[in-house]
Fold each of these.
Amino acid sequence: MTEAETPSIPPTSPRRSLARRLCAAAAVAAAVALAVCLAVRPLTSPDLGYHLAYGEQFLDHGRIVDHNDYLYTLPGPGEPRSAPGPGCWYDEQGRYRFANANWLTQVIMAGVHRLAGPDGLCVLQVALVAGIFLLTLATSRRLGTPGPLVAGGLLLAALTAYGRFNLRPEVFGYLMLAAQLWLLTRPRLGWGSVAGVTALQVLFVNLHSYFLLALAMTGAMLVEAVLHWRWPPRDVKRPAARRRAMRVGIVLGGQLLACLVNPWTWRLAVLPVQTLVFLRANKITAGPGQPHAHPWTAIGEFFPPFSEGFWQTGNTATYAFCVLLAVAAIGVFCCLWRRRWAWALIVAAMTATSLSMRRNIAPAAVVILPLALPVCWAVLGRLRHRLAARERRVVSVGFAAGVIILAAAIAIRVVTQGFYYREKSPIRFGWGLSPMHLPLAAARQLSDVPPGRVWTDYNTSSNIHYFVSPHPPVPILTNTWAYPPAVMQDVLDCSQGLLHFAEVERRYAPDAVALQNGYTSGPLIGQLSADPAWSVTLIGARHVLFRKNAPADLMITVERFDTDEFIARLTGQDPLPAAALYAGGMTLYQLGWDWHAAGVFAATVEHDPQHYEAWNMRGICLATAGEMLLRQTGNPTLLRDAITCFRRALQIEPDYQPARENLYAAEARLR
């Protein structure tokens, strides 16, 4: 921003100026601290095992792997080949290969894990988020955004993006975007900045496929630089404009060449474009509920944020995203008003990117806010001159104080788990590995009593293979690019009960099945539970392990199941016992063990009497047992207890339709 663009500020006394600066600094610190607080969480990613194992392969052998010889669901030599995913191919030996856009991220993660274990990974997670927000802070201050407004922008970015702060390769991509934006917005783009952006792009290409966004960002700045060179504004000299245009052009050229500096050269360079074409061609981003949908539609983060079923009422990130869209819209208008063509293009493009799919919201927030807020301040800040000096100080200090209070209030809710529990989020404030979300117990049993082949659902595969000791060479099973979409379709069809498991047994002859209870695998849990050929050998909050020909001492039967021991075990698996107990009750319900599930749901509502879903599920389990008791003895006691549970759920949440329907059905049966 030039001197002509910066509104004049009346002089203030040193004491008042110092007080305002301290208040603004405190607000900025509070916003950054909240972002860091939101990044302090246990590791829960379903891809964690894949990332660590891939990186370990490189650390141990110095080789970058792009195929998996032991994956028995891939077609063998001479077998029919299904269509590959985007950027994947079959080589001359018939191996299915893929360009891994995250390989360097995985090497870093594996190195940190080898040095410091899971705690080191949690530190890395926090450090990445802190780096992103510090770079965003530095860019915002450089562009002239006043401290209180910077604090508000950081707070909004944290609340918009916190759902994506898990330790995944994309967070490395956010860091690269923030760093490149910081360099590109320097008033004078020196050769050091040119070299820095190019070097960052080399890293970016090997860390995550979001590197395409960096090219778009630099391209927009080149458009503005050329326009200023050919038609310089009054406050821009032609030689300076020509020099900047040349250097931005060199940066873009360097970034394009950097895209080829990777183990797969052109294959990885074109992967983001191939993926976008693939998503559009298969209507994957059209949202859920499509007939004959592509298997990738099981990945919810590919859906637009406002698609049916993905508008999350009551979710802080949802409302924060709406505010972000409003800021972006005002920012584009102000950028055009101030003739900041590059910023207008970048903010508009990142807004469109965020609206295309949910996973793009976080990087959009990192880029939009540092560019939109300074021009909004420059244009709309003129209104503040209509206020007296004292009124301006009151507004500034009041806004900063509001950011501090809001950040502190949310941070307290985060630390005490209330923030996540209210939103029914699986995230927790904490450290280490999450025993509730990672199949650690199942992996330990498979380590102690190794089976032959293990069949898993889509969400469990990489972690169950990695945490088994010793684990297979490189479990790339949950990388969506690492196998043909047809294989994923078979896994989903089997897990959802559309393909009978007998067909899987005929093809692959597995000896153990590890499943995570959820909408993609719940039906298979019920199917195997009813199959006498399979025995349950482990039940956790969310995971079930089945074995064929299991040793007698490992078998768990409905008659011998100890509900009290199960409740005690789950209570220590989550900082919020009601969440773990409800998950465990749902797992027992999928197994068909309704009476035990009713006991676990009863424990759930003891910990959280307002848990209306648990009241409803306890009612369902009691109604099932009550129907049988009523038929056999004419005793309606359990059915009346079920009705009481449904009524309790509706007292807490009057609009909860499942409980209302269950209540009508139970009352009709009782009559």
Amino acid sequence: MGRTRYVKTGTSDSLWTLPGSALRAVFREGYGKTDLRADLLAGMVVGVVALPLSMAMAIAVGVPPQLGLYTAIVAGVVTPLLGGSRFQVTGPTAAFIVVLAPVLVRFGLAGLLIAGVMAGGVLLAMGLLRLGKLIQFVPYPVTTGFTAGIGTVIAVLQLKDFLGLAPASAPDHFVERVIVLFRARGTFNPAELGVGLFTLAILIVLPRYTKRVPAPLVALPLAAIVAVLLPQLHVATIATRFSTLVDGVLVRGIPRLPPLPVLPWKLPGPGGQPLVLTLQTFRQLAPAAIAIALLGAIESLLSAVVADAMAGTKHDPDAELIALGAGNILCPFFSGIACTGAIARTATGIRYGSRSPIATLVHAVVILLCILLLAPWIGYLPMTSLAALLMLVAWNMSEAKHFVHVLKVAPKSDVAVLVTCYLLTVFFDMVVAVTAGMILASFLFMHRMAETSSGQLMQEDHPVLKRQKLPREVMLYTVNGPLFFGAAETAMAAFNVVGVQPKVLILDLSAVPAMDVTGLVALESALARLHQQNVLTIIAGARAQPSHVLRKAGVNEEPGKIAFSETLDDAAVLAARHLH
């Protein structure tokens, strides 16, 4: 899509320049009528695609479908105005289902929305602290493992509506939910399955023939027509499943109301009872809030990266986190659930010609108009069709081909991280999975760093020395690789096995790109031991970062103790002078 376009970033920028960096960049480059027409068309298409998805996400969490629509509207207005990506479409996504559904069961709607506000605060802090680029350090096996696990959980949870089951309860853990669904197998409705399979077939087959028309725009209306024309099938729809009391009147399906301001803590809590806001409540909600924030940050920034690859742009990750934080703080005050960047909707916007964040604003307006004008018709959508849509989303999210490919070709350590994250996500939750995965990946990283870092002790000849050989009283110790924790002891180990005590030891750090405090302590211990043995240590070829660490620690030249040189040849000359 043309030459690469950048959103200005950099640590020298003021924090006040972060919000809205993408929108400002678009207007700086020039925004004309052609761009506006393209954004209007793309925004209308994305709005139509986002409408059923937003409802399906809300229903899967366990809240009324209009709450998903309110989320898409509020987030669709806030995040493009403040964000750092030109094409990001923000709203409720499938990844949040496994996190939000247990919170709703334990704390009610009030607790769910308050957790969203807390998550927004965490995201806002991450953006202000410029932590956006740190997301790239999450290992690929970790993200692949928990996204595949989330996809598995979502797909299994859709069996309830896809098969027309009527379970007796809705536990907040995966294994218990599977057991409850199995016990409800006697309530299976073949008609629900038939309509669901009909929807799923269109969703899968239509994109193979044409991508000009979004598949949900065809599949869901056709399924609704089948349900209306064949009432004897008794297929559950949004109108038969959900109802809302508006001014004392019971409205079935989606009420014709825009997002209205509410106080989240005034909404029903556990068991429909009021939620008491105490310090203990916030403590109990904190793990869920952190999980929402981390998952939202990862998915949103991954979506921005995908958009960059498709459109040849570059996003500002810190501005994106600030926008996402603001969106998650504001959504609950309009009955909206947690939101994040949606990869499928973002990619749809780009494919249909999106030029700027204005397309995302248009998508929010389209959803609002659908609520106000088409709410009664939306109520005819079958629940099994929305379940089929979510099952397809879960399949795409799991990236089964990539999962199997990693299992086949990756080292055993990476496979262990992948499988661990997957199983923990399915049988426990995402917080446990990501925490355990990051810890396991960190230990494996330290082990690999220790393998790559080494030390070599030699005398007389050295391939780098050009002008002279080393005297017998001089030893050369070469360190290869970074002196990080986990690797420092391995790199300095040969100091403990020196047989003959030299008078001068040249410590070659030219192959050490970086050093942390663990490497510094190991090096200081070696220098102290050599000083006690009256051995002069010449540190040769230290690079900028290790030199800065040494200077900051007070490791300076001391006659007869420590000397510095830029090259090994200079160090050999210094050693000869000391001996004579």
Amino acid sequence: MSAKPDEGISGDRPLNNPDDDELGYASFASHVAKRILTMAAPEGFVIAINGPWGSGKTSLLNMVRFFLCEREPDEQPILIQFNPWWFAGREDLVRRFFETLQSAFEGPGTEHRIRELFNRLGGMVSHLPVGTAADVGRAVEWLTTARELTVPEVKEMIAEQLRGLGKLVVVTIDDIDRLTFDEIRQVFRLVKAVGDFPNVVYILAFDPHIVAKALVEPGSPEETQFIEKIVQVPIDLPIIDRSALHRMFFRKLDALDELVGGHDTEMFDEQYWGNLFLGGIGSLLKTPRDVARLMNALQFTYPVVHQEVNLADFVGIEALRVFHPRAYDLVRSNPQIFLHSSELRLGAGRKEVDLNELLGTASLEESARKPVGSMLERMFPRLSANYDHGFDSNWRRQGRICSPERFPIYFAFSLPSGEFSTQEIKALLSAAKDPNEFGNILLRLSAEILPDGTSRARSMLDRIQDYTEKDIERAHIPNVVAALLELGDLLCRDEDRRGEIFDIGNSSVLVGPPSK
């Protein structure tokens, strides 16, 4: 199965078609649409869909509109979609709001008359005074005093025309919580001013905590009461099924993996991935927007290094970069802690790293320390008192982030200069079937000098030690031994000692440890 076009970089696009729903919102949207079509709204009605940012409010609104449009043409309501976030400034919001209302009534007769009246009312309401949060609730009162000779009359004319229209009007207003506090107050002032028109249903989508702060001073007892005065039916967005959210992420990750040609199965441990995901990564994915943010990051970074890193570890460290950048910076800036934590063990008691205290230094909130700490303990086994050096070679082969040789790749998104890639190692082992070809590769690597003066042959000899006779066909082993014996002198360069006093150099690597 090839990746669909929409499996690429996501612009956090909301859903429009219920067939694309993966979180169970479609059935709820269908119920809301049916209820709207059967309800009586003689004096107008305001519904609020409450939910935090990224929880899918826009998707739900789109699906409600979809189901409203499924009716026969003569049964469909007039749908008006207004997004105040597209505009800026108080006067622009008011003008655009009434322009949107007018544009929905395009027919002759009654609709033409309604359009004219909305145009006139918009000009009046645009002169509403701008006040503090406490002034919002007095918007209509101002209308009936300062403009009592004209505004009430115009509103009644509109009401009369709407009653005679014989159609329900549904106005959806989205992204209210993205506005500035002054703009949020302005939107609610508008809804309050025109929310009592007959046969008109308003559906507002916002985060109630953000809107409440905008409407009144923090701590005021009226913090939620004002919303209740405008909104007749508050609806909390359905709780997202965590398993459905995870399935959405897995599907997108599968598509990305397939797009880059698949991961190296030898570098992927399904049990380790399951433990890392359930123990931490999964708890960081709380909304569809979280899934989109992490996948967008992976779309950019994973294809560059997918052959050199462990997929599970890479998803884990990228999840920290996206959701907890301070924890990510803590790891990136302190490899000595996460790769060599034994150096921090003090005294006879061998005191271990206090991971919770360490995360506290990164100003990580208490609620996030448990999942983040769980992830780090799995990704960096050296943090554990049960660390076993015998796994070092396996971790290097598997591309694990806990391998000092692999660690820089996760942050530079590229191989360090001169480092041998996994694909190069496999190509070298494959070449062992021909002793001449194998020997020529060794000579070429010995002649490739790196900026530090060592040859790439040294990097190759370091990496190839991770591979055993299980990785080389038995019939090819004599070819490897013969090539190393024949070319040994050419590979043993003094420069490959890298300058350290205790560096054993290529000669000792080739000879190996003395037999017991």
Amino acid sequence: MLHRYGAFVARRAKLLLALSFLVMVVAGILGAGAFGKLKNGGFADPAAPSTQAQQLIDAHFGGESNIVLLVQAKTGTVDDAATADAGRAVARALADEPNVTNVVSYFGTNAPPLRSADGTAALVLGHINGDEAQLAARSEDVIAKVAGDRGPVTVLAGGAAGVNHDVTNQVTKSLAIAEAIAVPLTLVLLVFAFGSLVSASLPLAIGGVAILGTFAELFVLGSTTDVSIFAINLTTALGLGLGIDYALFMVSRFREQLARGDSVPDAVAATVATAGRTVIFTAVAVMAALSALLVFPLYFLRSFGYAGIGVVAIAALGALVLLPALLSVLGHRVNAGRVRWTRAADAAASPFWGRLAGLVMRRPALAALPVVAVLLVVASPLLGIRFGTPDEGVLRSTVDSRQVSAALLSRFPGNTATPIDVVTTGPADDQAVAAYARQISLLPDVARVTSSAGIFSHGNSDPATADPTLGRPDGQRLSIITTLPTKSDRSQDLVRDLRAMPGPGGATVLVGGFDAQLIDTRHVIAQRLPIALGLVVLTTLIVLFLFTGSVIQPIRAVLLNALSLSATLGVLTWIFQDGHLAGLLGVTARPMDMSMTVLLFCIAFGLSMDYEVFVLSRIKEMHDRGVAPAEAVSQGLARSGRIVSTAAVLLAVSFFAFGTSTVSFLQMFGIGAGLAILIDATLIRGILVPASMRVLGPLAWYSPQPLRRIHRRIALSEA
């Protein structure tokens, strides 16, 4: 069927090119609006108690303080006349913004917790209204108006709004830098790989099509559901990388067929029937791995599933529709623009990879055991892995919002700007609220509790401090200031204690704040993770069985992938959690971001399957011709090794470029994905695959008779 399709493309190449051009024009028009549809955030479970608490506070109690302005005196203290006047002006400017509520400042209250211990700085707190998309735009406007040099004071913006603002700006800059590095370097490497300017330009064209098409997809999805702005990062890196991967495989096979003496139409048909089939299976394998992200309720993760599945599908379509049409039109001119100082050959065969496979298979245990031992040692930091959620710690220490957070910890008593919020639903009288607030204030590490019945500290209260805006007939809000660092183990234990306490008058209690969000996010990801892993493994086993007809090959592939990914995550834990190389990379050691770790696992697993299918396609081709098992592996690796290693380097470049980011979770993602690709393409494909195939021998292609009949009936072989 694929051979017939390839012949059809060769006959109708110009028509298909014209239609493809029209589709790309439409995609470009739609894709241009994608950025306006995407949102910041998406790290919280919408059904979690902490999210429900935040929604109730935003709807009925004026909203949580999501913008924190650190007002610093240039000279003297914040109580000096000129400095105090400037501070009051900052507070008025914030309060005058149409979408800002609940503004509280030291300059209006003289509250000691809002003044630094040394008196040189004070806080202005407020809430910027709106959903995550509106918050991003409004934060940009508010911060531009109130932050910066204000006469006698300097104003820095922090809090959730400030952090999101800084992360978004840093990611945007990082993306531009990454693309500026990756695209020219990729073009140079492609020229080296092909030795021809025309051939080298084709993979870039398919990568561009994949990116443009996925932007259009994100525009459509962003118009109907929540999609994270960070999906853009995956779209550019994966679109460029996979577009190049698929085109590299197809173009190399086409040039190989021409070198054998095939006519252009026959070469196109043969390329689609062989390399095209491989592209289909590898695309399905990668999409299957990325589809596991859709089981998580956090739209940050789901967005990467949307973008990843879309970019893989569009890259595969480009490789199966647009690329064969281009090859048909170009014909032998695919080799035009020869670069004579390269040594690239027309054929894909590489004696080095064939000799390496032969050497490994002569002593498989001697070759494989040291590699396995090294990978297990490298994976050992996983034994101490800890998980967290994104906060200001992902930014460099010089960024404004990071400086605000550091000042709150070191210069201000208590966590005034990051309280634990308690919301009760249901009626409760003043006495019940007072008793409840007093009970909370007696808990260890609680500094004070602000409620509609007054401010309580260690069981004592002053009725004159009662804040009626914190009480409603159908609910109460209590703000708890602690002496504990945010996201510490003890502060999380306090959240659990609060959730275990009965509410005033039997009311339902919802606990919010950063610690509660961390607990809830960990819980929901841990709850859905077995489902995601099961989906990844099951779909991989099915796809590889359909590709090979063997039940052993899929199991071998999953085990080797698990080893490779464990080593990659071990290195990342050693760097980003344990702090090794932190100074070199400019990052702060912190727990591994749970969402980003799950994302990295799914993407790296899918890309490993990409190269697994590439290598297996040539080994199976030799095996189906009746070549002896060891020789089939050697010849298959010789014919695919150069392509896989070249594709891996090119894709790794796209991801490693994100290592230049100033946002640590983006650095972790880029370095991790690039490292996983290189480990897989070298140690796994070059050593462990031939060693395991040699040990398995003919058993590697075993399948029970009923399954063999099913495979033959489906007829998914190249024949």
